[in-house]
Every structure is written in structure tokens, then in C-alpha cells.
Amino acid sequence: MDHKLKHRDSEREYRNPIKTLKNEHLETLQRLDMIERTLQYLESLPTHTAMKRCKIEQSRLRNWVNELEASMALHFIMEEEGLFPTLSEYIGKEHGPIEVMLEEHAEIRNILSVWKDEVAVLSKSISGPVRDACLKRVIRIGEQAIERLRLHISKENQILFKISEVSLSDAEKNVVAQKLYEIEAAYPELP
User: Fold this and answer.
1) Quick one: angle between helices 129-155 and 17-44, nearest 10?
2) pLDDT for 136-169, tens place per residue?
3) Could you tell me the CA-to-CA distances from 36 to 26, 41, 113, 135, 144 in Å, in that order?
4) Which one of 108, 118, 123, 142 has the lowest number of neighbouring Cβ atoms within 10 Å?
């Protein structure tokens, strides 16, 4: 059993699915900070110097964006299949916060996919105007993705999770916690 599942297993004992999802948000925010620093570094680099360092940062960025996309895919599945069905019994699925979160999940999936593709192109670019244009796209899309994710996480933490904490009974939280554990176990290829 890997470290993440062991961590989840200990949280599952306490049956606190909201804490599990909030902890994932914290991990995502920390990852976004690292990615943002890398984007700032790449943006500030003169194109004619430090090419070796630039390649290292581009490689690091590619790995982090790939990991971010995969971890968000699992996180969204956990929310959509684990938490939202139970919570929707209280607040409904349409015309409310769950519907907004589902729309944002789709938007974020899309922007992360586009960003991942652009980062892959950047990592294959050598130098010159084509690379510079690609880098500008990567930075622009990355800034958008980071902003969207931070805003989304804030909404979930401040609205949806607070509603969940006060609405769901302990038995319902146990059911959600079990669903989260089963979802994570069903997708071992996702971080």
C-alpha cells in the first residue's frame, strides 16, 4: 500500500471525507505555488542565456503539469462520485453550488489539458521566435489555470465543504469516506 493510501486509510478511520478533500486542496495549492515560481523563472530568463537551466525548468514544469492534471482528475472523480451525490440530497444538484462546481471541473479539465499539450510542445522547442511564442502561450495558459484552480478551491473550501460539514450526518460522512477510499483504490494509476 502506498503512502497516499495509508494516509487516506488513517483518515478513513476517522470518517472525515471533508478533511481528506481539504488536504488534497492544500497539496494542490502547494503544487501551484511551485509551478508559479517556475513560470516566473522561465518568463524572466533572457532567451540567449542559461539554456541548460531553462531546459531543466521546462522539464520540471512538464512533470508538474502532468502530475497536476492527473491528481485533479482523481480529485474531481472523488468529489463528483463520492461527495456530490450525498450532498445533493440536501442542496440539489442543479441550480446551485454543485452545478457550478461541475461546470468548473469541466473548465479546469479543459484548461489543464490544453496547458499540458502546450508544455509538451515547449519542451520540444529549441530556441528562437517559435520557442518564445510557445513559452508565452504556456505562461498565459498557466496563469489562467493557476487562477482558476485557486478560485475553485476557495469556493469549495468556503462554501461547499462548509455546507457538507454541517449537513451530512456522521453515517453519511462514513459512506462518503468509504466511497472516496474505493474511488482512490480503483484508480491506482492516478496520483
Assistant:
1) 150
2) 999 999 999 999 999 999 999 999 999 999 999 9
3) 15, 9, 17, 14, 11
4) 123
Task: Give the global pTM.
Answer: 0.86
Report d(CA 93, CA 6) in Å as an integer. Answer: 32
Range list of H helices, the chain = 3-14, 17-44, 51-77, 84-91, 97-124, 129-155, 161-167, 170-186
Class of domain 3-186: mainly alpha
Q: Which amino acid is present at 88?
A: S
Burial class (CB in 10 A: 0-12, 13-18, 19+), 186: exposed
